[in-house]
Amino acid sequence: MGTIENGIYYRTLFKLKGWQWMYIVWGVPSVILGIIVLIFLTDRPKDAKWLSSEEREVLETELTQELLARRTNAGGHLTLFQALRNVKVLLLALAYFFIVTGNYGVELFLPTILRDWYHPSDRLLTWILMIPPLGALFGMLLIGYTSDRTKERRFHAAIPILIGAIGLGLTLIRHQPLTTMIILFTVTSIGTKAYLPAFWSLPSLFLSESAAAGSIGFINSIGNLGVCFTAVIVMILRFDRHYREEPHKNIRHPTISSNSNELFTSEQQHTEQRSLFISVLFIIITRELK
Question: In Gene Ontology terms, what is one molecular function of this protein (predicted)?
Answer without folding.
Answer: transmembrane transporter activity
